[in-house]
Target: Amino acid permease
Amino acid sequence: MNGLMRRKSVSLEALHPDHRLKPSLSWWHLIPLGVGAIVGTGIYTLTGVGANLAGPAVILSFLIAGAVCACAALAYAEVATLMPASGGAYTYTYAVVGEVVAWVVGWSLLLEYSVGTSAVAVGWAGYATGFLSAIGVHLPQALTAGLLAGGLVNLPAVLIVFVIAFLLMLGTRESATVNAVLVVIKVAALALFIAVAAPRMDAANFHPFMPYGLAAHPIDGVKHGVMAAAAIIFFAFYGFDTLSTAAEETKNPGRDLPIGIIGSMLVCTAIYIAVAASAVGAVSFKAFAGSPEPLALILRQLGHGQAAIVIGAAAVIALPTVILAFLYGQSRIFFVMARDGLLPQGLSKVHARTKVPVRMTIVTAICVAALAGLAPLDQIASLANTGTLTAFVAVSACLLILRRREPDLPRIYRTPLAWVVAPGAILGCLYLFWSLPTKTRVFFLIWNLLGLVVYALWRWRKPQVAEPETAAT
Model:
């Protein structure tokens, strides 16, 4: 019970310099970081998956998933500016609710960042292997598939994780600058798709608009419907929460965090809806439903083979930016958990020159690379959604608790209609969670039960993990 009630202050003044991160980011770094995290495998691959589950109404699925994420983004913007410390949802929950709930959130975020990053690395490895084969370089199957997928190790997936980790260790500002350049390239590729496909839209391709209905329901053992597609497409939207983990490294968090979080969400929602509408309108959804490369397939069917090649190349560029953003977010969450004593505290030291948590970045890269190199994570990628949904619910709840408990607290940014927006995010996330496959929800429950066991063992071994503190901000 004592651990459950233990809350911490997020004041950074008392921290030793070896455990403090360097503020070096502005809003023009944050928006590309958010877009880089959001625009990736989702829009390049899930358009086909969503069309298979919802038909032309996949456009509505994108809109619903985007609306839920927008509500969560508004909640994040207020809470992040109240507590401009690294760690994101984990830190906010620790400060507002307590240690045990914070542990559950941090443990759940392992599914978002580590599993998600590993899945993206495996996806990138598939594109990279195909590109190498096209230029005459053929890697053996033993080096392109993990041990659990019939090979020995997915070497390209492992290498890309360590390349991105090395980039992050050079410095936060430097890696953010490289990320911004790559984001411009991949957004330009999506603009190319819209420019080619939109003029070919045919109203007949939108009928029937909702062939599988609105609510999620099983057809041949697979959930179909607009909400079922939205629950999966949700993967295409999250990533903006990575920005909240950058709060401590932002020069002016009160101004820059809301601009970065809300700005990246608005940009990505507009891009996604335009891409989905262009895709569905240009050809029948049945022509690309379930395709692993729906955008390139559509362009080939429209007779634009060269544009399809550009889209495929852009996908190779897009995925490392997602890996960068997610690896950054996971390493910062681990870093703060170590700083709080919930992980070995020696991992919370930052490099003297770059002020980057090099040790934790290396440890995180090793964990992610091991998953990417050995496991067929495409089978459990939807688990990443459960971690994100948990974090969104937690942050929205923190917003409401602080509004009730400390209504007069000075707020740099106030979420408009907070008592509508935050409950909307909570209820939307819970409904999307229920719309996920049953086995995903069961595995999520098992994962968190395991997490509570790990926490109990750690607290038993380290009874003085953290000094009880009562200040929420």
Strands lie at 217-219, 222-224. Residues 99-134 form the longest helix (36 residues). The mean pLDDT is 79.
